[in-house]
TrEMBL record:
Keywords: Hydrolase. One of its GO terms (molecular function) is hydrolase activity. This is Nudix hydrolase domain-containing protein. Residues 1-39 are annotated as: Disordered. Transmembrane segments: none annotated. Residues 76-201 form the Nudix hydrolase domain.
C-alpha cells in the first residue's frame, strides 16, 4: 500500500508539473482563472483506508484526496464497448430491460471490465444481452462523450454459429433483427447508438465501411437521446483497407 501511495503522489506531482505553467505550479489555479465546476458525484471515504476524502483542486482538475493517507482517488472516463451485429442484411438490436432507458432499443453494449480486451468485452456484452455469439470484424465507431465521461467503442460484427440469439433477462426484454429501413429511430435509447446506426446504414448503402471517431456534444441537462439535444463534432472518417474503393 505504501508503494501505491508513493506512486500516486508521484503521479500527482508529474501531472501538476505537466499541466501547470512553472509560475503557477503548486499555487492551484492561475490568477484570474475561474475554477472549474465541482464534480456532480462527490465521494466521502477513502477506498484504501476509510479516511475522510477532501475535494481539492491541485492541478486545475478537482481531485478527491484522502486526509489520512493522501491517496488520490482519480476519477477517469468509463469505456462502453459493444457491437453492431449484422446477419443477412439485418441488424441485431435489444430492448433494454433495465434503467436507464428501460423499454427502448439499443445495440448490445456495456462497461468494459478490468483485465478484458475491448473486443472480448464487446463479444461478452453481446452474449449477455442478446444471447448471440459473434465474430468481431473491425472497430467501427469511437465516440467520446465528455459531458458524461464516457467513451463508446462499437465493433462491427457478424453472428457466429449457431447463428441464434435471444433476449437475456434482466438486461434485455427483447432481441430482434431489423432491416435498415425498419430501425426504430424514435425508440432508440442513446444518442451514441442513434449516431452510430445512422453512419452504419449510410456505409451499408454505399457498400463501404469507414471507421468513425468523434465527440458527442450534448446540451446540458438533456436526456440520453433527446432529438436536437446532441451533435457529433470533430468527426474523423477513415476508410478501412478491406472496404476502401480501388
Ligand atoms: Zn486513505
Amino acid at each position: 500500500m505504501q508503494h501505491q501511495q508513493e506512486q500516486h503522489l508521484q503521479q500527482q506531482q508529474q501531472r501538476r508539473q505537466h499541466r501547470l505553467p512553472a509560475a503557477a505550479a503548486g499555487e492551484g489555479e492561475p490568477a484570474g482563472a475561474e475554477p472549474p465546476p465541482k464534480p456532480k458525484q462527490q465521494f466521502k471515504f477513502c477506498r484504501m483506508c476509510g479516511g475522510a476524502l477532501e475535494l481539492t483542486l491541485p492541478d486545475g482538475i478537482w481531485r478527491h484526496v484522502c486526509t489520512q493517507c493522501q491517496y488520490v482517488d482519480y476519477q477517469n472516463p468509463r469505456m462502453v464497448v459493444g457491437t453492431i451485429v449484422q446477419h443477412e442484411g439485418r441488424i441485431l438490436l435489444c430492448r433494454r430491460g433495465i434503467e436507464p432507458q428501460r423499454g427502448l432499443w439499443t445495440v448490445p453494449a456495456g462497461y468494459l471490465e478490468c483485465g478484458e480486451s475491448s473486443a472480448a468485452g464487446a463479444a461478452r456484452e453481446t452474449l449477455e444481452e442478446a444471447g448471440a455469439r459473434v465474430h468481431i470484424d473491425a472497430p467501427y465507431v469511437m465516440f467520446d462523450i465528455p459531458q458524461i465521461s464516457q467513451i463508446y467503442l462499437l465493433f462491427r460484427a457478424r453472428l457466429a454459429p449457431p447463428f441464434t440469439f435471444a433476449a437475456r433477462e434482466p438486461e434485455s426484454l427483447e432481441a430482434a433483427l431489423f432491416r435498415p429501413e425498419d430501425i426504430p429511430w424514435d425508440s432508440l435509447a442513446f444518442s451514441s447508438v442513434s449516431i452510430a446506426l445512422k453512419h452504419y446504414v449510410r456505409d451499408l448503402e454505399r457498400g463501404c465501411f469507414s471507421v468513425h471517431s468523434g465527440v458527442i456534444q450534448k446540451r446540458p441537462g438533456s436526456g440520453p437521446n433527446e432529438p436536437g439535444s446532441f451533435q457529433l463534432v470533430d468527426h474523423i472518417q477513415l476508410a478501412t483497407p478491406e472496404t476502401a474503393p480501388s
